[in-house]
Amino acid sequence: MPLIQRARTVTGRIVQTVGVIIWLGCGLAIFILIFGIMADALGIWAWLAVLLFPVLFVFAPLIHWLITGICPLYIFILWAGGLVGVLIFYLGSRIKGEE
Fold first, then answer.
1. pLDDT of residue 97
2. Residue-range definition of the domain harbouring residue 77
3. Cα–Cα distance between 16 and 29 in angstroms, integer?
4. Which of 65, 89, 81 is nearest to 29 (CA)?
5. How many CB atoms lie within 10 A of CB 15?
6. Of 23, 20, 12, 18, whose CA–CA distance to 93 is shortest?
7. At a CB cut-off of 8 Å and minimum separation 6, what does 40 contact?
8. DSSP label at 52?
9. Environment class of 44 (CB within 10 Å of its CB; exposed 0-12, middle 13-18, buried 19+)
10. In terms of C-beta density within 10 A (0-12 exposed, 13-18 middle, 19 or more buried), how is residue 52 classed?
11. Which one of 9, 57, 63, 73 has the fewest CB atoms closer than 10 angstroms to its CB?
12. Alpha helices, DSSP H, located in the chain
């Protein structure tokens, strides 16, 4: 393997790893925040929220807004962070090139 191709592969993998770390970190933070919102709203029934997480992922900002009256900007920031992580992962795959 030529040196340039090897450097592209290694750089692409490093960039992809950074993207995955950002994506997973933001996803975990959103999961914890949404579970906290559901625990405040539902009490012990919040464990049901784990099963309904995909639906609650979309509606959690609205639920939080209705419960507290405060716009949950931090959830939107974490959503954006997750999207940035996915974009970084994609760019890493483009840097790495075809194998």
1. 67
2. 3-96
3. 20
4. 81
5. 19
6. 12
7. 67
8. T
9. exposed
10. exposed
11. 73
12. 3-42, 46-51, 53-68, 73-96
User: CA torsion, points 80, 81, 87, 88, in degrees to nearest 10?
Assistant: 160
Residue with tokens 């194998």: 99
Instruction: Give the count of domains, the chain.
Output: 1
Contact assessment for residue 99 and residue 9, using Cβ atoms and an 8 Å cutoff:
yes
If one counts every other C-beta atom within 10 angstroms of the C-beta of residue 34, the result is 24
* Measured distance CA(96)–CA(65) in Å, rounded: 42
Q: How far apart are CA 48 and CA 33, in angstroms?
A: 15
Contact 17, 95 (CB under 8 A): no
Mean pLDDT in residue range 51-62: 75
- Beta-carbon count within 10 A of 70 CB: 8
- Res. 59: pLDDT tops 60: yes
Looking at residue 98, its pLDDT comes to 58
